[in-house]
Structure prediction request, 1122 residues.
Amino acid sequence: MTMTGSKANRSAEALERASRAHQIRRRLFIGFLVVAAIVWIVPLVWMFSLSLTPNEILQRDTTSLLPREPTLGNFSDVFSVGLTPRWFLNSVVVTTVTTIFTLILSAMAGYAFARIDFRGKKIMYPFVLAGLMVPKEAMFVPLFLMFAEFGQHNTYHALALPRIAAPLGVFIMTQFFAAIPDELEEAARVDGAGRWRTFISVMMPMAAPALTALAIFTFVLTWNDYLWPLVSATQREMFTITTGLASLQGNFAQATELGALMARGVLASLPLLILFVVFQRQLIRGISIGSGGK
Amino acid sequence: MRKIGRRLLLLLTVFALVAGACGGDDDSTDTTSAGGDGDTATTTATGDGGEITIDLARFFGDCDDATQGVTDVSLATTECEVIQILTNAFNAADNGITINKLGGQAWDSYYTQLSTTFASGNPPAVAVMHSHRLPDFAGRGLLRPIANDLASVGVDFSDYTQPAQDGATYEGEIYAAPFDIHGSLWHMNADLFAEAGLVDGDGNPILPTSPEELMAQAETLESATGKKYFSQDWFEFGVGARLFLGLVAQQGGNIVDAGGNATVNTPEGQEALRLMNELASKHSDPSQGYTDSQQAFLNGDIAVLHNGTWVVDQYNREAEFNYVVTSLPGFYGQPGAWGDSHMWVLPAATNEDDAVRAASLEFVKFLYDNIDAWARGTGHLANRTSILTSGVLDDAPQRANYGDAADTAVFVPAVPNWAGAWDALAEELNATWVSDKDQSAALADAEARMNEELSS
Amino acid sequence: MTAISQDQPKVKPKGPPNLTQSTGAGWSFLVPFLVIYVIFLIYPVIQAVIMGFFDWDFLDISDRTFIGLKNYGRMFWGTEMTWDAQHLWAWRLVGLAVIPFLWRAVGRRSLTRGSAIGLTIMLVVLFGVTMGVHPGEGGRWYDSQFWSSFGNTVLFVIMSTPLIVGLGLALAVALNRPGRLVAILRTMFFAPYVLSVAVLTLIWAFLLSPSLGLIGSLWESIGLEPVNWLNSSTWAMPAIVVTTLWWTVGFNLVLFLAGLQDIDRSQYEAAELDGAGTWAQFRFITIPGLRRTTLLVVTLQIIASFQIFGQVFIMTRGGPNGATRVSIQHIFESGFRDFELGYASAMSLFLFVVMVSISFLQFKYFEPEGTA
Prediction:
């Protein structure tokens, strides 16, 4: 397309104005997001501030957003209980093992469902998905009795195995593997790579955002699990951080020791938040994938 | 995932597997609880010299930070501290028995956890239980009848007050050693009463003796001080239902009849509900739950708080006004207030083993001997007549004012499936003052739902 | 579609993936998961299903009697049952209103005529006929709380799903760019998800309390009477929805973010050059590109909403007067408070069947070409 000189000038001006308007809109938008985010985390800020307030003050009044007479006493009280580090360790071990195995097994199953045609797939996929829709509270008792019969409660594997069987991972991985362009897999095939090789070196890296998402979810859900560790890990050394901190509560704890409750909540959640901060980079891919049909 | 990511993954896997293998079978999964296939008691003697470890299940919280190594119970200020220090003292004594405390639950999940231990055939050796839960467990043969056992270790069952005895008995058998009676109390801000001129010569608040007097007092106090007269937890923990029970009992009625049918839609029930709603609408703020009503009381904004025995010491310490607490005033001519009991039970399966049973009983006897320490440290009522009449608790704050409740406490009926019926009752009653539900409809629905629960 | 310059390729609809036949490989990838799944999920579920046909006591597991369908009769039925056309007419109309959509799908060829006929018959029977059944004069449901808790659950699903999915999508699109600030914003919106349900409900119960929390004092400072949210029959359910939204939108945010990564960047550049505005880009590139992810998110959201429990149980205990009691709470109370394991299992099976049916319909109706 050709333009005359004056036309080009006017177009250039128009473009400049458009881009400045665009800039302003973008700034406003980001500003709006920042304000929204600040309002969004007000409850968390309040939680943190309550955790820094002495219990006695909170017995009278809990409506202040900022801590009054701030103290670290609530936090130190948690750590003065001898077993808190052990509870943390239990949670870390169980959650890490569960997450790793879930990632591996779900990715493999997802790859099979998404990219391999095999006999029985049409039955197996719904069979696996149906597991998502089972209310956990329903099958919880047979599961409990199963472990009890073999004397396997109060162990790490009792805490980890039921979670690894969750179909959520398979569902997510199937959907994300299906979205990967065929050309990549064909290219690897042409290069002579076997199924497993393709899976490890081509598919898994491509699915990094999905794997990251699944890892985050599994970690959070396993870490915060309460009902199962409650009945399975009844010996104090086997508590997870969730049940361990719950056991510290006295009667009507929220009326008498709100600060302590909030401090325990902060301590239990902080590792998860740190994990998210570290891994969220994997969620965003800076480069575009594949070249489509270009 | 780049190379580093993969190596990290491998490292983590190895670490996790190793840690898992190590952690899974260390001494925490020891002789006592989850092992075995549930057909015999699993607590075994470890070593000779008669050393034995038994499992104890209890709520009351975990306060190791305050009680580690402490065995002097006079230092205790909370429920948790008293029981933990007592346990420490027992463990430290030269009796060859170690008490292993189970746990992991917040207060309200105790029965979920305890029930699963019964379901798997592997309950602890000793457990604490509320009296209102006894029928469900005793009725299924899960608890050991211990009348003879208690006698053999020197527990005098007749020393317990009548309500305590009744609470530990089901269908003629004794299943528990009661530890206390706890129940409704009338907490008062005597300064506000004084301001309204409602005190007697000693400065103690005058208690109303009829609904009319109650309302008149409330009016007087509110116009004199500008503060609300009354509050309680109106919706959170079923406190309203407890007051209802007390008021019905004060009129000579009951909420369940001898045949196990709900009887709340009766003249007594209707009057009790009417009184409560009048209080709620004219002299209270029914949007208040447990925490806010307590806050309002401690801040001096409420004259009377209906709460329990467990806060007496706390209020005594923290109230900046003249704090007086009594048992519930009798509005209809006789005393009566909701009460319950913490009791120690011996699950049948685990206590068939002689050694375990002997250890459990020794612990129970020890606790029996320390009921006064429990009452002193927690504010709950001692439930033994000998202690109540001996005056040994007279130095504990306020105890003399409500000691009579140990004899007049009204427990919920000892029928199976009570928990669901109680929840239904509480929900229907709440609806009248929280959502303005019609009172007769609420009582009718409550009765229907309670019967639905009780009969299932 | 806006004009696209000839130099750029058209946006190609993603066809079904080219799958290779390999039954051996397929099963070998699937088996590790399957083993754990069958042992720790399927086997307990089968036991639970069997329990549904028994009167099974939780505390004393040797005490069980086979009672066939009596649990189901207790759930579904009552005394003095009658039928009339206007009972719950609003819900029934909504259910019947789905039928035109089915036939639209037939027109669009995403549903076969046979399936449409079958589904139409089912819907007419379900909403036209069976929902008109209810206890008449002097009668009552055997389990007065079963249908009410199911109704509350459905209400919750309807209220919460569009909100939580919509907000998750909006946030993901807004925050899908590199940069330190945006990374911080992402963390802030995600952060509530890391809280356990106990802490979450503690914070929000206090927040929403007229006298204990920030909202109450805010209301007072502007001269309004604080609202007792959790004790109001109108506002308790919305309050639970808001709490759940705040807590779980992070999940959808992360999934949508992951899904956005798979949309070819070059499409946006091309559209930009052609003068397509932000909204047009969103409508014609982002939304179609997210079809698979949206199906994933919506399915998971509906399933999760049907199983809501903790927030309700701890914050309102089903109140006021049962206005927020949900199915799982009723199941939990039947099993763990009333010790009726068989009955709880039967109700769980019902809930399961409902969720499976809805997911099935979703997949049939919304499935993009290709994979399962």
Observations:
- DSSP finds 20 helices and 14 strands in chain B.
- The two ends of chain B are 57 Å apart (CA to CA).
